[in-house]
Write a structure and sequence with these properties.
The complex is a heterodimer of chains A (about 575) and B (about 180). Chain A folds into 3 domains: about 170 residues, 3-Layer(aba) Sandwich (Rossmann fold); about 160 residues, TPP-binding domain (Rossmann fold, 3-Layer(aba) Sandwich), CATH 3.40.50; about 170 residues, Rossmann fold. Helix content of chain A is about 40%, strand content about 15%. Chain A contains 23 helices and 20 strands. The longest helix of chain A is centred in the middle third of the chain and has 20 residues. Chain B is an alpha+beta fold and about 180 residues long. Chain B folds into 2 domains: about 80 residues, 2-Layer Sandwich (Alpha-Beta Plaits), CATH 3.30.70; about 70 residues, Alpha-Beta Plaits. In chain B, a hairpin with a 3-residue loop joins strand 6 and strand 7. At the A-B interface, loops of A face strand 1, helix 1, helix 2 and strand 4 of B. The complex binds thiamine diphosphate and magnesium ion (MG).
Chain lengths: ~575, ~180
């Protein structure tokens, strides 16, 4: 049967099991919107296209499925750019569909024409320009396959308006022909054997678990491997939840704001097992002195990540879950008692220190709010964040016992990600409330999306940690620029009134005592709620590895009170 | 200067050259030369890339090329038994009296004169870069008006295929185990 290009798009999306899309209409994508009305798809209207991309991204991270964002040509498409770059850096599978001027006008600077495939070339895993209806089915099929397979990532389809109108025979292709695109699955046996040799010899091994564990769904295999070999597991920010925080082998988060015992373990290891992580500068500190005595095994699906930042001894190229499944039977059980004892000693010192550093002074610190939230939600909620100090406090004080709970922008650190990402993730789990820990700065970058939450009845609970500063930048100014606070102070607004103006119930807490009742209020109020926690203005995130410093050259939490005797 | 040479086969889809150029720019790989053209199959293009090895190693380039969905195969032919050729056209100032001298020089290099004008000639030469540089240096004193080169193209001798640094990165084709 003949269908228009626009109809074919929706036919394909349905076959890819898309039930929710996030988008913003405009001239060049109108035929697609018109055709949409005939299909059982729920469309969410953000208040800015960047929100659409972050929503699709949040949806993808929370559901493990491909998120879909739509925008019109020109400014609509360019507004997606930050969202696409964010998804690219964090390997999040989204498909973006943008309208484009009719094919015969391309290159003529027509109204709202922007070279979108050109603009997004370096920030997409792949992109397409569709100039005729006959290409649509094949392109959409490929786009979804590319977005979710291998190392996932964003794919953009720039869809010329004439191709949306044109009619053609529709048939969904059974096969895709991408001769050059064949992500590795199993690592070669001889490489596995090399890895086993290193693992058997190791006395002080540490696993570095990254986002790849979650994306490959290898949580169980990770736990089996770690338990069998008694290897402690450090996690990257995006890897949190790969192993439960409460697991005896968990070292928590590594890197710039990781706990000292975790970074100490990495620096003193004789073997690092990097599982689906990419040795980002935020986790290695100075590369030249990084884990100097450690041999390195790297399980990775993207060959360009191997040896990129850190030379490794044995790369195992393949899908993490598959490779671990192959590897587990080959390794012997071990104990590593001395090593675990050493780490336990470092851990105890850290814990004593962190108790000593909690000031009991009647003032509200961000850590209080995050801890209380963790307790109130049983540690089980999906938690989105903005970017800054509050993000790091969320990572440090909310303990993730389950995967796919933390929705945060790691690679790009995109302020404004939090609110739309929280809304997007709610669409993946509509039975539960989604929490957002946001900063006053980050929240203001996308606060218009509160209207979207209201319009959709999205059950999101927003906790703004208001320190009246672009806190993370202020902290660096304090520590590394002699307190010269250049443009980091923020005035207002009254977040409670802002929320109420959107029709969102809101409450403010200014003392530690008010924290729990405030959280309770949010939990008992149906639908979206905003909480403002007015926290200490000049608290810092510790520990901190200054950029370019050795990973174990941390600035530790200052001790503010004597140990209880 | 140490050079490395790799070649890549890719699906001949729109924009593929742009993707490769964008990749090199983004990853900060400096290329010495780059040559692209169809193969015997119109749906597959072949590209030869020459890089300065101080700037980047072939393994990194290969691994990044595989990230491009349309790239089918990449091989490193540096230090491999391969035929490497450049084609260069050189327009040299030449009075009628100088033409014979140029023709003689050209024939020593198995180059030929492909165009003659009142004040100039065009010399065409194919060969390795060393050989071409040899001729260029000899012609330079006469006055080179214009010079254009294709960039290096390579082909492995015999049945060999080049080295692959990235096991498992590309699928499909049989790969050599040396
Ligand atoms: C879009 C964007 N612009 C600028 C930055 C740089 N930046 C990183 S953290 C930060 C401050 C964030 O302030 P806020 O959201 O209030 O969080 P806080 O650190 O105070 O908790 C800034 C400006 C960024 N990460 N993203
Ligand atoms: Mg702030």
């Amino acid at each position: 049967m003949k269908k228009t290009g626009a109809e074919i798009l929706w036919e394909c999306l349905l076959r890819e099991e898309v039930d929710t899309v996030f988008g913003y209409p405009g001239g060049a994508i109108m035929p697609v919107y018109d055709a949409m009305l005939k299909y059982p798809v729920h469309h969410v209207l953000p208040r800015h296209e960047q929100g659409a991309a972050h929503m699709a991204d949040g949806y993808a991270r929370a559901s493990g499925r491909v998120g879909v964002a739509l925008a019109t040509s020109g400014p609509g498409a360019t507004n997606l750019v930050t969202g696409i770059a964010t998804a690219m850096m964090d390997s999040s599978p989204i498909v973006c569909i943008t309208g484009q001027v009719p094919a015969h006008l391309i290159g003529g600077d027509a109204f709202q024409e922007v070279d979108v495939t050109g603009v997004t070339l370096p920030i997409t895993k792949h992109n397409y320009l569709v100039t005729s209806a006959s290409e649509v089915a094949q392109v959409v099929r490929e786009a979804f396959h590319i977005a979710r397979s291998g190392r996932p990532g964003p794919v953009l389809i720039d869809f010329c308006k004439n191709a949306q109108f044109e009619e053609t025979e529709f048939e969904y292709p059974d096969e895709i022909s991408l001769p050059g695109y064949q992500p590795p699955q199993h690592a070669p046996e001889k490489d596995l054997a090399e890895a086993v040799k290193l693992i058997e010899k190791a006395e002080r091994p540490v696993i570095l678990a990254g986002h790849g564990v979650l994306m490959s769904g290898a949580m169980k295999e990770l736990e089996i491997f770690a338990t069998k070999t008694q290897t402690p597991v450090a996690m990257t920010l995006l890897g949190l939840g790969a192993l439960p925080a409460s697991h005896p082998l968990s070292l928590g988060m590594m890197g710039m704001h990781g706990e000292a015992f975790c970074n100490n373990a990495i620096q003193n290891a004789d073997l690092l097992l990097a599982y689906g992580m990419r040795f980002d500068d935020r986790v290695t500190g100075k590369l030249r002195t990084y884990a100097p005595r450690a041999r390195k095994i790297h399980i990775e699906i993207d060959p360009s990540e191997v040896h990129k930042n850190v030379e490794v001894d044995v790369p195992l190229m393949g899908d993490l879950k598959t490779v671990l499944t192959d590897l587990i039977p080959l390794v012997e059980e071990s104990e590593h008692e001395d090593w675990k004892t050493q780490i336990a000693a470092w851990r105890q010192e850290t814990e004593e220190r962190s108790i000593m550093s909690q000031p009991v002074n009647g003032k509200l610190h961000a850590a209080h709010a995050v801890r209380a939230l963790w307790k109130a939600t049983g540690g089980d909620s999906i938690l989105a964040t903005g970017v800054g100090q509050h993000q790091m406090w969320a990572a440090q004080y909310y303990r993730f016992d389950k995967p796919y709970r933390l929705i945060t922008s790691g690679g790009t650190g995109t302020m404004g990600f939090g609110l739309p990402a929280a809304i997007g993730s709610w669409f993946a789990h509509q039975d539960k409330a989604v929490w957002l820990i946001d900063g006053d700065g980050s929240f203001q970058m996308s606060q218009a999306e509160l209207s979207t939450a209201v319009q959709e009845g999205a059950n999101i609970k927003v906790a703004i940690l208001n320190n009246s500063y672009l806190g993370m930048v202020r902290q660096w100014q304090e520590l590394f620029m002699d307190k010269r606070y250049a443009s980091t102070a923020l005035t207002g607004p009254d977040f409670v009134k802002i929320a109420e103006a959107h029709g969102v119930p809101a409450k403010r807490a200014t003392t530690p005592d008010e924290v729990s009742p405030t959280i309770k209020f949010a939990q008992e109020t149906p639908g979206p709620v905003v909480l403002e926690f007015v926290v200490e203005k000049e608290d810092n995130v510790y520990p901190l590895v200054p950029s370019g410093a050795d990973l174990d050259a941390m600035i530790r939490r200052p001790i503010t009170r004597e140990p209880a005797s | 200067m140490q050079q490395q040479t790799v070649f890549a086969l890719m699906e001949n889809r729109p924009g593929v050259l742009n993707r490769i150029a964008s990749l090199f720019r983004r990853r900060n790989f400096n290329i010495e030369s780059l040559n692209v053209g169809h193969t015997d199959r119109s749906d597959i293009s072949r590209m030869t890339i020459v890089m300065d090895s101080e700037n980047v190693d072939a393994r990194t380039v290969e691994a990044n090329l595989y990230k491009l969905v349309n790239v089918i195969d990449v091989q490193d032919v540096t230090n491999q038994p391969a035929v490497m050729r450049d084609l260069v056209l050189i327009k040299v100032k030449a009075t009628p009296e100088q033409r014979t001298e140029i023709a003689n020089l050209a024939s020593i290099f198995r180059a030929s004169i492909v165009d003659v004008a009142p004040d100039s000639v065009i010399v065409e030469i194919t060969g390795t870069e060393d050989k071409i540089e040899g001729l260029v240096e000899l012609l330079r004193p006469l006055g080179i008006l214009e010079l254009v080169r294709t960039g290096r193209v390579v082909m492995m001798r015999g049945d060999h295929v080049g080295i692959r640094h990235t096991p498992g990165a590309n699928g499909g084709r049989v790969r050599s185990e040396e």
